[in-house]
Amino acid sequence: MKYTGRIVLLTLSLLSWILIIVHSYSYQVYGKMDIIYLICALANIGLGWFLGKHYDIAKFYSEKDYLTQVYTRRYGLKTLSSLLQKMEQKKKELSLFVVDVDKFKQINDTYGHDTGDWVLKCIATSLVNCTRKTDIITRWGGDEFLIVAPDTNNYDLFAFLIRIENQLKEVSMILNLEISLSIGVSSYPDDALNIDELIRIADKNMYLTKIKKS
């Protein structure tokens, strides 16, 4: 969670307090007023921190999925749009992954929704561990995730698939369940130049992968 709200509001609180002090001393207000100013300053700083903290919490949960703690679909689409513009300006590539949990309904039906939620959280953590800080991981809906990876090539794609496969083996052992994913990939600018088409192609490739497994 970022500290943007707390830093901004705390800074504004300090500045407003300093302005009050400067203004008061310009009129030669001394003595007992110093204690009042100190109390008001501490109260002002505390209020700024309190309001800033609640702003940061609200912003965090507006961007992050409550269950998995990865980004929301809305935030993912917004970020993907800006990333595509940057890749176009820098003449660089971007890869998009659509990730679907295999037989997730069966897991829910057999072991219950609590176990299903735990599987999703473990998979989200695995995806975070297997990607870079510059990559954006979004819970696309239900048991689907979307990963946006700027400035990647075919070697990076292969390396990611190997890492996630190894991570899933560990998750399967921990949960005592066989966990697998179907992943579809599309690349900018080779496959498409706009968001909708990139997602459509990656989604289609994901379903082709799933069909091959069945």
TrEMBL record:
Residues 92-214 form the GGDEF domain. SUPFAM superfamilies: Nucleotide cyclase. InterPro entries: Diguanylate_Cyclase, GGDEF_dom, Nucleotide_cyclase, Rev_trsase/Diguanyl_cyclase. Keywords: Membrane, Transmembrane, Transmembrane helix. The chain crosses the membrane at residues 34-52. This is Diguanylate cyclase. It comes from Paenibacillus plantarum.
